[in-house]
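TASK: fixed-backbone design
INPUT:
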């Protein structure tokens, strides 16, 4: 009779190498999806083999539930998030040179930034990383400006001149396919959190596949038209639940686009200056932290901290106290690209 451990190892090899070989054949054009799938399969094998090994080895795959309690995480093989990395907390350590025109940025020359190897990706490297990927961004005007940063890196100036007017059609969606690299970019105009939640639950669930990269962000419209941080938090709860429902065996890389730093004196209407003051902004940011939508608080979304980046660039980088120059969203996009490299365990 074959010992159970040997049967387990044989089954593990079948489960691990056959799907990975098929994935390598079919998904060779999509690095992030392949590496995410390989990571999931490897972890799943570990989960199934742990009963055959001593408890000391099993702890490599399972931590006691108390280790997760302060993050409110619940382990489930079908709800795996990308593994934590010691480099992620340092992604936003950006230094700004305000004396330049326009202001410029770089990662701080600190030991963590150097050892993590953060880098600005060239058009070629970014295209290689995103080759075969679907990037979906849903949100308000801040999200639209992030899409502009994405396009400016991936497209040459001549191509940008033809696509930029379509991107900035007022209150509209935008769709672009870069055929030679297999990259699909979609922007969904969703200025309220309820718009994003509805899109995730109804529209996105009926697509043949989920996006490889999902970026969400809103709050400014709610702040202006409702000015109720508690209700904003309740809407974030619904949004978080909708995002959680997307967590399949191979989940998209998911980001939350934070609120910008608002310069109250530069806002262009009295209503904005009255409703979007510092106290209200702080209350809205607290809701984002407390409603567990961010990875650092146990949620599914990695923060792209536009508030920190816009504050670093300063008032000279905004004309209306709300929307910032492209360099701010360029920095956010490069942070996102480096997070994708970390999550998919790649280097350029």
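OUTPUT:
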């Amino acid at each position: 009779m074959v010992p159970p451990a040997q049967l387990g190892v044989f089954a593990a090899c079948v489960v691990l190498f056959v799907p990975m070989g098929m994935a390598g054949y079919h998904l060779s054009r999509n690095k992030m999806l392949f590496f995410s799938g390989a990571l999931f399969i490897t972890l799943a094998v570990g989960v199934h083999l742990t009963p055959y090994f001593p408890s000391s080895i099993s702890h490599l795959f399972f931590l006691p539930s108390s280790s997760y309690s302060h993050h409110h995480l619940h382990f489930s093989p079908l709800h795996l998030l990308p593994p934590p990395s010691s480099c992620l907390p340092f992604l936003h350590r950006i230094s700004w040179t305000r004396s330049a025109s326009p202001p410029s940025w770089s990662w701080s020359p600190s030991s963590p930034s150097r050892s993590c190897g953060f880098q600005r990706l060239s058009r070629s490297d970014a295209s290689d990383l995103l080759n075969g990927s679907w990037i979906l961004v849903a949100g308000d005007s801040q999200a639209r400006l992030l899409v502009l940063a994405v396009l400016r890196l991936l497209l040459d100036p001549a191509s940008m001149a033809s696509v930029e007017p379509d991107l900035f059609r007022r209150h509209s969606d935008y769709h672009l396919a870069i055929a030679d690299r297999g990259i699909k970019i979609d922007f969904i105009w969703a200025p309220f959190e309820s718009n994003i939640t509805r899109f995730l639950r109804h529209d996105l669930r009926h697509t043949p596949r989920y996006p490889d990269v999902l970026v969400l962000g809103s709050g400014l419209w709610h702040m202006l038209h409702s000015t109720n941080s508690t209700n904003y938090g309740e809407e974030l709860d619904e949004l978080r639940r909708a995002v959680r429902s997307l967590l399949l065996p191979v989940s998209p890389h998911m980001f939350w686009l934070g609120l910008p730093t608002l310069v109250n004196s530069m806002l262009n209407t009295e209503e904005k200056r009255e409703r979007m003051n510092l106290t209200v902004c702080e209350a809205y940011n607290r809701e984002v932290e407390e409603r567990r939508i961010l990875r650092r608080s146990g949620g599914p979304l990695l923060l792209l901290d536009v508030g920190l980046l816009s504050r670093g660039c300063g008032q000279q980088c905004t004309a209306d106290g709300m929307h910032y120059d492209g360099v701010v969203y360029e920095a956010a996009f490069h942070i996102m690209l480096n997070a994708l490299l970390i999550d998919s365990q790649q280097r350029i």
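COMMENT: The first strand starts at residue 94 and ends at 97.
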